[in-house]
Write a structure and sequence with these properties.
Blueprint lengths: L25 E6 L3 E7 L6 H10 L6 E8 L3 H19 L11
Antiparallel strand pairs: 1-2, 2-3
Length: about 100
């Protein structure tokens, strides 16, 4: 017989003003068999020089703001939470005329 007990609990983030808030408008995703890495970047409007460089190189470099590594087991819940919050957002702000297309 096992001596293990199951305890149900809810995790609530503890707000800490010393943790910086980071803005990102682009996310690239990579994975291994064990985890997903979400790399958040900030893509700024391109200058004329940036556009010329992008035309020739077909690359735009964006500064990385943060990387978050998430275990594979968390991904289905993350997807569900994002879908639910997207639905709630749409229900709350559906009447507003938001711009279409990419953010950057």
């Amino acid at each position: 017989m096992s001596d293990k007990k199951q305890i149900n609990f809810t995790i609530i983030p503890k707000d800490d003003d010393s943790v910086p808030r980071t803005y990102a408008n682009f996310c690239s995703i990579a994975h291994t068999p064990f985890d997903f890495t979400l790399t958040f970047c900030e893509v700024m409007p391109l200058s004329g020089e940036d556009v010329k460089s992008a035309e020739s190189e077909r690359v735009v470099r964006a500064p990385v703001r943060t990387k978050v590594v998430v275990p594979v087991q968390l991904i289905p819940n993350l997807i569900s939470a994002l879908q639910e919050h997207t639905r709630l957002f749409s229900d709350s702000y559906a009447k507003q005329d938001w711009p279409k297309g990419p953010v950057h």
